[in-house]
Amino acid sequence: MITNFFTLTVLVAFALARRTCKVPAIGGGEDDGPAINAAFKKCATKSKIVLDKYYVVDSLLMTENLDDVEIELSGTVQYTPDIAKWSPQSLYLTYQNATTFWFLSGKDIHLYGGGTIDGNGQVWWDTYNNTHDSGTAGGSSTTFARPIPLTIGNATNVVVENIRQIGSPFWNNFVYQSSHVTYKNIRINTVSYSSSPTANSDGWDIYRSSYVTVEDSHVNNDDDCVSFKPNSTNIIVQNMWCNGSHGISVGSLGQYAGETDIVANVSVKNITMLNAQNGARIKVFGGNPDPESTVGGGTGFVRNITFRDFYVQNVDNPILINQCYSTNADVCAQYPSKLTISDVHYYNVTGTSSGAEGNVVVDLECSATCNDITATGTHLIAGGNSTSTEYICKNIATQDQLDFNCTAPNS
Ligand SMILES: *[C@@H]1O[C@H](CO)[C@@H](O)[C@H](O)[C@H]1NC(C)=O
Ligand SMILES: *[C@@H]1O[C@H](CO)[C@@H](O)[C@H](O)[C@H]1NC(C)=O
Ligand SMILES: *[C@@H]1O[C@H](CO)[C@@H](O)[C@H](O)[C@H]1NC(C)=O
Ligand SMILES: *[C@@H]1O[C@H](CO)[C@@H](O)[C@H](O)[C@H]1NC(C)=O
Ligand SMILES: *[C@@H]1O[C@H](CO)[C@@H](O)[C@H](O)[C@H]1NC(C)=O
Ligand SMILES: *[C@@H]1O[C@H](CO)[C@@H](O)[C@H](O)[C@H]1NC(C)=O
Ligand SMILES: *[C@@H]1O[C@H](CO)[C@@H](O)[C@H](O)[C@H]1NC(C)=O
Ligand SMILES: *[C@@H]1O[C@H](CO)[C@@H](O)[C@H](O)[C@H]1NC(C)=O
Ligand SMILES: *[C@@H]1O[C@H](CO)[C@@H](O)[C@H](O)[C@H]1NC(C)=O
Ligand SMILES: *[C@@H]1O[C@H](CO)[C@@H](O)[C@H](O)[C@H]1NC(C)=O
Ligand SMILES: *[C@@H]1O[C@H](CO)[C@@H](O)[C@H](O)[C@H]1NC(C)=O
């Protein structure tokens, strides 16, 4: 009893020692960005920041050098849809010309609180629909940057939980040059209410980062649910509900000649994938003879990837490997990919495809030989008007370790 009381007292003392910065909201549509940035500067170490109001944000949130900071977001952070202002002022990141509204950086950071991050995406999608003004790989251009609502960048030991994200103009979350980052209980809803579609509405993109976990989350969007970009290692994605997405995707990788891309040690488990273009996907560019190529020719590897307990419904390609991604078929045949794919395992992938690919439910096509690809517990039915199921394989060295019979692709 006495020990417990003592422990409690110490804990209370610690809690009291934490400096707290509560951020007021100006109201009337005025920019709360400067006050938020100021609070993060003042409360950058061993502190708590409270965001419990409705904030209008019209300037870049640069919250850096944080050390042991709790952020209670129980209110709403809503970014203004001011394209002319944000396009130059959002922070450019060094991948696919992605930019961000909020760069959250430092160590030992806990963001939580049940609040909302609102990207106000409708104006961006409507404008994009009519101008198609985009940078490389669908990313931002200097005149039309579609910023990412939350980037965890140059950070270690970060937990983001119990947050809602709506209306992202581009990817919802970017894990950038970070390690030991966990997201849980995140609800993402990126839905357009006009005739223009949303664009590049990925739930998560992970880049140059390791030890990242995404779990217990709910995603309604129209692009990758979670995507592992170059140099994503030691990743866990589990207990996810994804609707309308492009699947859980490794890649795309190998786009740039002279660059080495690695995705390794990925565990994807207990996924419900509904109304999607893909289920478990790996996409790698083909080779290219041009040393300056930006359409394939990169090297590296995809290794030790596990997809387990993966349920699909109305999904076009439940299981897909494409090692000639966005590559001219003739170029790819002559220059197979130099980015190897091996040690990929599918356990208990079940459910029904959409029928969009006819009878095909599995499509594993490598341009160079892929090694140690296995599947057990596969129970897939072709949906739509299909009457049987078909599994396509090309250059898979371990066809005998798949629990279905492969046929060669037509061409
Ligand atoms: C994208 O970024 C590259 C540099 O990484 C730059 O050369 C290019 O102009 C950018 N594209 C656009 C459309 O801004
Ligand atoms: C992130 O870290 C890299 C490498 O340490 C550095 O070059 C870059 O400026 C940092 N980015 C930001 C936005 O702080
Ligand atoms: C989106 O583009 C399509 C095709 O160009 C057009 O018909 C539609 O009206 C556009 N939607 C909006 C909201 O501008
Ligand atoms: C699997 O994920 C769903 C969310 O999609 C969750 O409700 C369920 O509890 C998870 N199952 C296990 C065994 O963790
Ligand atoms: C799931 O996505 C489909 C479109 O792909 C949409 O019509 C449906 O409303 C979504 N379901 C939920 C529960 O959000
Ligand atoms: C990925 O990591 C490898 C090995 O550390 C490195 O050589 C390569 O440059 C990295 N690639 C990217 C895109 O950061
Ligand atoms: C494969 O990746 C998992 C994490 O997903 C890791 O626990 C395991 O040690 C890795 N295995 C090898 C042989 O690298
Ligand atoms: C994968 O995990 C294994 C086992 O933990 C580790 O030895 C290896 O370095 C990891 N691979 C990468 C590329 O991080
Ligand atoms: C596949 O699912 C079955 C039934 O749910 C379970 O018993 C088995 O352990 C699973 N296999 C793997 C390899 O996860
Ligand atoms: C199924 O057949 C009907 C009637 O021929 C056709 O309208 C529909 O598009 C087909 N569905 C698919 C998924 O191919
Ligand atoms: C694969 O084909 C062989 C020979 O036709 C047949 O014996 C076997 O049952 C088939 N396996 C599956 C999983 O359909």
Automatic annotation (TrEMBL):
EC number: 3.2.1.67
Record-linked InterPro entries: Glyco_hydro_28 (IPR000743), PbH1 (IPR006626), Pectin_lyas_fold (IPR012334), Pectin_lyase_fold/virulence (IPR011050)
Subcellular location: Secreted
Assigned GO CC terms: extracellular region
Active-site feature positions: H246
Keywords tagged on the record: Carbohydrate metabolism, Cell wall biogenesis/degradation, Disulfide bond, Glycoprotein, Glycosidase, Hydrolase, Lyase, Polysaccharide degradation, Repeat, Secreted, Signal
UniProt cross-references to Pfam families, sorted A to Z: Glyco_hydro_28 (PF00295)
One BP term from GO: pectin catabolic process
Gene3D superfamilies: Single-stranded right-handed beta-helix, Pectin lyase-like
Main location: secreted
Enzyme class: hydrolase
Molecular function terms from GO: galacturan 1,4-alpha-galacturonidase activity; lyase activity; polygalacturonase activity
Annotated family: Belongs to the glycosyl hydrolase 28 family.
PANTHER family to which the protein is assigned, alphabetical: EXO-POLYGALACTURONASE, PUTATIVE-RELATED, PTHR31736
Protein name: galacturonan 1,4-alpha-galacturonidase
Species: Lentinus tigrinus ALCF2SS1-6
